[in-house]
Design brief:
This protein is α+β, with helices and mostly antiparallel strands and about 300 residues long. It is built from eleven helices and seven strands. The chain has two domains: about 1-45 and about 175-300, no CATH class; about 60-150, no CATH class. A five-stranded mixed sheet has the order 4-5-1-7-6. The chain has a two-stranded antiparallel sheet with strand order 2-3. The two termini are about 30 Å apart. The longest helix is centred in the N-terminal third of the chain and has 40 residues, at about 15-55.
């Protein structure tokens, strides 16, 4: 293994410019993805507690017709607009309602409603002119209705993996992931992926003669191992540099929400691409090339 590492390093030294460009392009793309997904995870962490506080233990959460928004800076939920006057008293007199609490703090301007029969209460709310929904993805009431009532417990079951608050927060986080920033991160990763594959394929093509000579003396397997080690170290170096770059930029630009845990989750996502790049960019092309006879490799070498 030590000899393979020495040969890999020697190959990098012969192709310094290409090695630097390959590592640099991969590092930039990985750094961009780490930054974007760290931001998404940080947004989720900062908003989850605020949403749980706003909903509390309510069976039904009543918000203004325009919905609410998660204020990441202050870590609280802000109501968009106001509820109709007297709505709290009106809801308190509806069937099966056991309590109505006007929220203070995170979620101020909304109502937490507990009910012995949430579906019966929901029917009464709908009849009184409110939009009733158990879908966390709905962000505003239907036009012409006075408020939006989320059925918090009606959409939950004992087999559900996520609570209503977690699903609601996931909808908010998806706005970040689907934003221009998220698109840029994915496109950058794709471009870095293509740059690495192109570099590896060109390297294989240029070394046909070298592979042919080594195959002629019967060390075909060692050639494959050498190229895999060389390519694997190159990709790993790009990933490590990219993670450091992306995590560093995140800590520098957004120190208030930076945490190693959020960067760790982004790194776990990016690391999935390591075996994919190694297989597509190194293993398969090198294996196909070595299926040819040494004479064919020598004749087709540039």
């Amino acid at each position: 293994m030590g000899k393979l590492l020495k040969l890999a390093v020697a190959s990098w030294r012969r192709q310094k410019l290409r090695t630097a460009m390959t590592v640099g392009s991969l590092a930039l793309s990985v750094g961009a993805v780490v930054f974007v997904y760290s931001l998404s995870v940080a947004f989720e962490s900062s908003g989850s507690q605020a949403i749980e506080s706003a909903i509390g233990k309510a069976d039904i959460w009543v918000v203004p017709a325009k919905g609410v928004e998660v204020n990441r800076k202050d870590q609280q939920v802000d109501a968009i607009g106001e509820l109709p006057g007297g709505l709290a008293g009106k809801v308190e007199g509806m069937p099966a309602v056991t309590s109505v609490k006007t929220v203070v703090g995170s979620g101020e301007g909304t109502l937490q409603v507990t009910s012995s029969d949430p579906k019966l209460t929901a029917d009464a709310l709908k009849a009184s002119g409110l939009t009733v929904s158990s879908d966390p993805g709905r962000t505003a009431a239907t036009a012409g209705t006075s408020a939006l009532a989320y059925l918090v417990t009606a959409s939950s079951d004992r087999f559900g993996a996520y609570s209503f608050a977690q699903q609601f927060e996931a909808v908010q986080v998806n706005e970040v992931a689907s934003s221009v920033l998220g698109v840029v991160g994915r496109v950058t990763l794709a471009l870095g992926f293509l740059a690495v594959l192109t570099s590896l394929l060109i390297s294989i093509d240029e070394r046909r003669r070298e592979f042919g000579i080594l195959a002629a003396v019967g060390i075909t397997d060692d050639v494959l191992y050498l190229f895999l080690v060389e390519s694997g170290l190159l990709i790993l170096l790009g990933l490590v540099v990219g993670v450091i770059f992306g995590g560093g930029m995140f800590a520098l630009l957004l120190p208030g929400i930076f945490a190693l845990g959020t960067v760790g989750k982004a790194v776990a996502l990016v690391s999935v691409y390591f075996p994919i790049m190694l297989i597509l960019g190194a293993l398969i092309p090198a294996w196909r090339l070595l299926q040819k006879s040494p004479l064919e490799l020598l004749r087709s070498s540039p």
